[in-house]
Amino acid sequence: MLRIAVPNKGALSAPASEMLREAGYRQRRDTRELVLADPENDVEFFFLRPRDVAVYVGTGTVDVGITGRDLMLDSGADAVEHLGLGFARSTFRYAAPAGPGLSDPVTQVSDIAGRRVASSYTTLVAQHLAKQGIEPAAIVHLDGAVESSVRLGVADVIADVVETGTTLRAAGLEVFGDPILRSEAVLIRQSEAEQPAGLDILTRRLEGVITAREYVLMDYVVPADRLEEAVAITPGKESPTVSLQHHSDARAVRVMVPRSATNRIMDALYDVGARAIIVTSIHASRM
Ligand SMILES: Nc1ncnc2c1ncn2[C@@H]1O[C@H](COP(=O)(O)OP(=O)(O)OP(=O)(O)O)[C@@H](O)[C@H]1O
Ligand SMILES: O=P(O)(O)OC[C@H]1O[C@H](OP(=O)(O)OP(=O)(O)O)[C@H](O)[C@@H]1O
Ligand SMILES: [Mg+2]
Prior knowledge:
Elements: E1 2-7, H1 13-22, E2 35-38, E3 43-48, H2 53-59, E4 64-68, H3 69-75, E5 79-84, E6 90-97, E7 116-119, H4 122-131, E8 138-141, E9 157-162, H5 166-170, E10 173-183, E11 185-190, H6 199-214, E12 215-222, H7 227-233, E13 241-244, E14 251-258, H8 262-271, E15 275-281
Parallel strand pairs: 1-3, 1-4, 7-8, 7-9
Antiparallel strand pairs: 2-3, 4-11, 5-11, 6-9, 6-10, 12-14, 12-15, 13-14
The protein binds adenosine-5'-triphosphate, 1-O-pyrophosphono-5-O-phosphono-alpha-D-ribofuranose (PRP) and magnesium ion.
C-alpha cells in the first residue's frame, strides 16, 4: 500500500486534497482525521504539518508526500522532487522598509551584510547568503507573520513567501534583489530509494489532473488551403487530429491548447479563416 503524506493545514492543504480527489482518491471529510485508508486504490493518506512532510518522506516513514518546493529545500531532508503540481505558486524573496526619509535603506542583497534577517525559512536564507559571501548580523527564526518583525524591531530585513505582495505592502515593505526561489506544490520522494510500488499510477493520475487543468480542447473548421497555417497556430501537445467535413472539403480540426492562451489562439485562427471554433474543458485525461 502506497503511503502518501498530505498537508493537514495551511495554504497547501485544501488544494492538495482537491487534486487528489480529482485524481480519484478518497479524501477526508473531517479536518481532524489524521490517517485515511483508501483500500480500493491501494493507498493510505497521512495528514501532517506541511513542514513535516519532507521529514517523513526523507526518513522513509512514508513513501511520497505533497509539500512546497521551498519547504522541502528548507528542511534539508533526504528527499527530491518527483512531480511539480502547478498550484501554490509563490516566490521567496527579500524585503525591507522602503520610501523616502530612510537614513540607511536596504535596497540590494549586499546591503544585508551586518543586518538582522527574519524568516521562517532560515536554512534557505543562510545558504543563499553564504553562497554570495554575505554575513548578516543574525538570522532570526520566526514561525509566521514574518512581515511584522521589522516594525516590531527584531529584524531589519525579511525573507518570506510572496504571492500577490499584499501582505508586504500592508507592512510597508518592498521586495529587493532577484527571487531567492520560485516555489510551487510538489510531489516528493526519498532521494535514493527505489521507486515505491504504486507510485507510477499516482503519478499518471496526477499528471492527468494537471493536463486537464492546463489544457482545453479546441475544435474548428478551416478551408483546406489554410490548414497548414492553422496547424502552425495550434500544434497541439503532440499533433492535431484532422478530418474531412461532411458537406464540404473544409477540414475539421481537434487539438489541445493551453487554457491561458485560448482567446489569443481563437483570434489568430479566425484571421487565417477558421470558423466554428469551439472550446471544451477537459474533465479528465491520461496522456
Ligand atoms: N499566499 C500564498 N500563495 C501561494 N503559496 C503560498 C502562500 N502562502 C504560503 N504558500 C506556500 O505554502 C507553503 C507553506 O504553507 P503554509 O504557509 O500553510 O505553511 P506554514 O506557514 O508552515 O504553516 P502555518 O502557516 O499553517 O503555520 C509553502 O510552500 C509556501 O510557498
Ligand atoms: O503575497 P501575499 O499574497 O500577501 O501572500 C504571502 C503571504 O501568505 C503567507 O502567509 P500565511 O497566510 O501562511 O501566514 P504565515 O506568515 O503566518 O505563515 C506567506 O507567509 C506570506 O505572508
Ligand atoms: Mg504560512
